[in-house]
Amino acid sequence: MNINHLKKYQTFSSVAELDQHVRGFLRRYKWELSEGNLEILTYIWRHSVKYPGVSFAKVNTIVSTTGRSRSTVIRTINRFENMNLIKRVATIRPNGKRGVNLLLFQPQEAFLTPHDDTLPDTAIDTVSIEAEATSPNECTPEYQEEAENKQGEKQPVKTKKIEGRPGSRFDMDYTFLPSYIPASFVEVAKPFFTPVEVDRAWECIHRAYRREQMHHGIEAYLEGVTRTFKQAIFLYKQGKIKKEFCGYLYSCVLESLRQEKRKETIQCTDSVYYDWLDEA
């Protein structure tokens, strides 16, 4: 295929728009992805800039470059397609034969972060989630910038809030939160999180619940989930969590739900199979 013909498949108007989209995806899902997933995504992302959103990298090329197995690459691409991040498109050559398979990044408004043009205000006493300047994995609507003065000394860290402040058009309180977030969880999280952060923390918890495919509704596990959340907050405030908070919380909730699922499976097995030895 003539590479210039790829322009008709372009899904973004600029590389900056593509980058904003992928970073928004990572903000939501990075803690669910393995190191291999991230390497493969990074490769596809970096090779989708000539015509923003269009990658024609072959599976074999990704395998040889990342060092991951062919099955891992294919499984990862399938996963990203199921998550609506990318779409595979088969092309046809002028002679009618099948051409290369393209990987197209799909624009989704949910992955984009609204721009904030308001002035910074005094920081609220909430859990501050650390984010690396070179990494697209922000977990809260806060970011930090450090500047150096002429002598090379660091200036005080400034905090800018995206969520909004009293009296502005972005002002929100906890009554704006979606009704599907349990009120008991909101009450526990309020002293530490802004409303936007509460929403993201619950989204993280709910993803862990969906991934584990539990036997009952999430309400049945709310007590354990809340207990895990409190423990994570305590460790974070003690400075014992070095990774981003949402990633740590996701891992803890996932492990907690796995333990509950094991207990439920054992109980179910006990109810099906009668132990005649113990009875005797």
UniProtKB/TrEMBL annotation:
Compositionally skewed regions (Basic and acidic residues) per UniProt: 147-164
Organism domain of life: Bacteria
SUPFAM superfamilies linked: Winged helix' DNA-binding domain (SSF46785)
Region entry Disordered, spans: 133-164
Name under which the protein is recorded: Helix-turn-helix domain-containing protein
Biological classification of the source: Bacteria, Bacillati, Bacillota, Bacilli, Bacillales
